[in-house]
Cyclic nucleotide-binding protein
Amino acid sequence: MRASTRDGRDRGWAGELTGGLVAALFVMPAVLGCGVIVFAPLGAAFQSQGIQAAFGATIAAALFRWLMGAGSLHVNAPRATQAALLAGLLGQAMHLADAGGFDAPAGVLLALPVLALGVAALFQLLLGALRLGDVLKFIPQPVVAGFVNGFALVILLQQLPNLLGLPEGTGLAALWSGNGAVNPWAFGLGALAVAGVWLLGDRLPGLPGPLIGLAAGTLAFQALATAIDPALLGVTVKAPPPGLPFAPSLEAVAGLINHPLSGLMLPSILATGVTLGIVSSIQSLLSAAAADALLRSRHDSSRELMTQGGANLVSSLLGGTVTGGSPLYTRVAVRNGACSDRANLFVGLGLLAAALGLGPLMERIPLSVMAGMVVITVMRPDDWTLQMVTLLRRQQTRATRIELLQNLAIVVTVALLVAMADVLVALAVGMALSVVVYLRRSAVSVLRRSYTGDRVHSQTGRSAADMELLERHGGAIAVMELHGPVFFGSAENLARNAEAMVEGRETLILDLGRVNDVESTGILVLRRLDERLAREGRTLLLAGMGKGRGLRRMLRDMGFDRPETEGRIHADLDGALAAAEDRLLARLAGGEAVEDELALRDHPSLLGLTEAQLDLLSLTARRVVFAPGDRILREGSTDNSQFFLVRGRVRVEKRAPDGEQTVRVGSIRSGAVFGEMAMLTGEPRSADVVADSPVVCYELTAEDVAMLDGLDPSISFLLLRNIAVELTGKIARMSRAVTMGDA
Ligand SMILES: Nc1ncnc2c1ncn2[C@@H]1O[C@@H]2COP(=O)(O)O[C@H]2[C@H]1O
């Protein structure tokens, strides 16, 4: 696939040439900086070798990318933060050798970064080959950011002595113990270069700031050296690179294998390699995504990892440092005309020319200026951390603020552990903290909303008197709507919330309709909650347990079958709420009273009729009885009677478009009417009506009404008015349910 630049033009080889060469110029300071860092524990004498290694690695990576022709352009650069990880390995080995009394020659120690880089490369290749690129996305961003910032901190601590011009081999601690003093000339030169780049860096878009800083600092040093004894000005970068270090590392590896340190260092080599592989892979994938946005291309995660792994393998054979894709330098190349991986040929050739030609110049660069340039490139926190801080400064809700602060706390903890302890400790603690934070967040979010039965009612048609009772006493019913996963992390918190919520109430409805996953430990917690509520004489109803969700089976499999056997499981929330209201109304009416058959004359829909009118109606209406499950009305049929329900409950069902499945849309209880719609409009039945319990009602046909009209027209008027009153109540309840839904 060929990508083209943003303006859609492919400028051909000329564009690749200029883009590649300018990118090489910009990458150079990163190469120098990483070179200074990677072998730092071995002392200043190894700086030139480090720089050679960094050049070798970056050239190899660029040529490898060009040869592989991975498609969309991606320029590799060494990362100071990752070079610091390799340096840490060297430092650890020197410490071990000291403690164990071994002689550890540098030639042997140099094999350590080579091996770790090899492990990192193989790890990346493996991730790519197994197509596991996406798995890396599960490593939490705060942990990755913590690593990047932690390595920056390591570099800062490591380079500050050089910037301050402390005598070679002395660390910052020497300042306190009085064994080392700041060299004001060296520090002045370094600080000047840093300040210059800091202030002017962004105003010189055509040239890389650190390179200008290096040139300016070096010129100032040379000018001063004509007036003052150069020895006072501090040291310069040691010995120039004698060409490119092709494959010196195999000898060193052989030396290490025969050395007693090899066994001691093996775990650290593996750990460092894997950490490096993970961090570098994540950064490369993020960077590939950024390059895609720039070039409107699409990368293949696994192929990208294979390419990075291959490049790092070649680098390790050159004794080099790690490199990874960089959106910054990719952008530079694209801005200057590059648009495909062919530009990497020129990045490689440009750097090769520099490596061969820079030797004599390198010798003249003051060490403090070099350190200053390294420090300035790592001084900025990584982009993600900056973004979090920017967000925090804006007006935020309390919850978002807490979330941002938690993320930043993880970043700081991981960064400090990387700098002060060990990368593996940092990784483990960072992952553990992220899991805890995630669990807490899910625990908070599992409760979607909660309310009580006096504020929200089911869509059940009831008499006005019953509705009034529910308004007054519905607080005895608590509803908790849940969402997200119910698992060990969220269930305990849920149980606590539930116990607080149910305090002083008789029924708790848990609506699992929006829960996407219930895990076995979550079910155990629900079961304990159920048992506790049962002991206290309260009832737990489970809603949202419709067919096809597998939830009922899960409960049965976990031995939690009491809700099922006791009929406390409901397909939807409205059904559960209706059942809870029925129980409440039954209790308020004194046990079974509500289930007693209402006399037709007492039916609320006949309110306002005179005794004579009631007599007339009682003689006309026909008493009909249904058993549970009987289909009383059928959707679409053209009969037109109206029914006064005096005992039991019916449910209203609509047919789904396929005609097979039915959906329950509401229920109607004794004291209410149904079938009034067809009676009023003459349209076919709008829904099925099915008996939910033993049902008794009085049926009035359209002919009956016509006959009554002839005898006493005010009967119809009163009936219609009562139906209108009932409908008004229904609409008010629906409006409330809708506004609750928006809350
Ligand atoms: N959404 C609903 N909620 C409650 N009752 C309904 C609903 N839709 C229809 N009904 C009742 O179900 C009856 C079906 O027959 P009708 O259309 O004659 O009159 C209807 C109403 O009484």
